Request: fold
Amino acid sequence: MALAIFDLDNTLIAGDSDHSWGVFLVEKQLVDAEIYRQANDGFYADYKNGTLDIRAYLQFSLAPLTRHSMAELEKLHAEFMRDHIEPLMLPKADALLQHHRNQGDHLLIITATNGFVTHPIAKRLGVDDILATDPEVVDGRYTGNFVGEPCFQAGKITHLHEWLKHNHHSLEGAYFYSDSINDLPLLEQVDHPVVVDADERLAAIARERNWKAISLR
Reply:
């Protein structure tokens, strides 16, 4: 049994769930539409460029969670899944996940997107475990803060090694699938790095290093 590790956004799904959640909030008129849309798009551009200030982004993206009860958020997320995430599902991603299940591998998503957004998506995909940036909850409500180090860039390695301490797995023979230059640090840690519909900079590195490249689109 090996670890099969996957980035989520633009890897296992055909879009970015974090950005899509922001679009959903604008559509539902739960935020100031023009200000939020501009900021959401700006942060997403920074992410794609590899220049995202993750702490500033988390402060922005987690703030709307503080305005609603857990029950309200659960209903909103169900609507978000139906209208925004289901259309991003990829049959080839489902087939890849099933391939690793058939090999007896343990499936793990590791994503910078916060756990409120991503845990239901991982469940929908049937993935065994997920590591994500954890929003803070106090007295049953989100505070707008996050717990520990963001699960982003080299922070993904920190989260993974902490997880490995408490689970009967190792990186021996591990796979990691990602589309993003932001995930280069973790791709360099595994025996089987695979780039998936990669951005230009990651695709160039993959060619130089003879890493496997695939498309799930």
In short: The mean pLDDT is 97. Strands lie at 3-6, 106-114, 129-138, 141-147, 175-178, 192-196, 212-214. Residues 85 and 166 are 31 Å apart (CA to CA). The chain has nine helices and seven strands.
